[in-house]
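Let's sit down with a protein and look at its sequence and fold side by side. Please make up or recall a protein chain and show it to me in full. Label the sequence line and the structure token line clearly, so we can match residues to local backbone shapes. Go ahead whenever you are ready, and we will take it from there.
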Amino acid sequence: MAKLTKKMAIAYQKVDSEKLYDLEEAMKLVKEVNVTKFDSSIDLHIRLGVDPRKADQAIRGTVTLPHGTGKNKTVLVICTPDKVDEALEAGADYAGLDEYIKKIGEGWTGIDVIIAMPSTMAQVGKVGRILGPRGLMPNPKSGTVTMDIKGAVSDVKGGKIAFRVDKFGIIHSSVGRVSFTADKLRENALELLTTIQKMKPSSAKGTYMKSVSVASTMSPGINIDTKVV
């Protein structure tokens, strides 16, 4: 095991690994034990009692965080020529069709979110093997395959995020940055947790939200009491 730095050792001493913190305590503490000099992401890790192999338990969705994520997401809109101006005026960083399909096919993935018109999905599918593993493939369930280009771009730029359970039954999602106040982090986290709680599938047996923890980049994880959700 790698030796902890002095700052890391102090951070770990401040966190009681046996304690379940409420959201307010956890968000204050995660800011306190951050050891990076940059504005680290604050991430929630939510372990669910679901079987992701079953279609009705493969939890995925979107949520608009009240205070955004603190990151200005780069958005590409795959659309027909007549929608390019609309997409750019709405705040998209890039918009077009054939030229961007070609660029992606050549390995370009310098974007955070791709929004596509339904009529362009056949072309998008040609680069699905590149987009899929990177979590960039547009999907109707996340609101990224739509005719409402303006609304979709505004949602993403305004703090709308997509989440999905991984093969281990865990959802990992950012709820802000270290520079956020503890109250803003708490409100963002509560919005995400409440949304996921409402999505509990009827076929899931036993405890649904098994554990929740929060951590910043390189900080110790802080366990959150799921009863507060």
Q: What stands out?
A: The beta strands are 41-48, 60-64, 75-78, 94-96, 113-116, 160-164, 170-177, 209-216, 222-224. The helical segments are 6-14, 23-32, 84-90, 98-105, 121-125, 128-131, 149-157, 182-198.
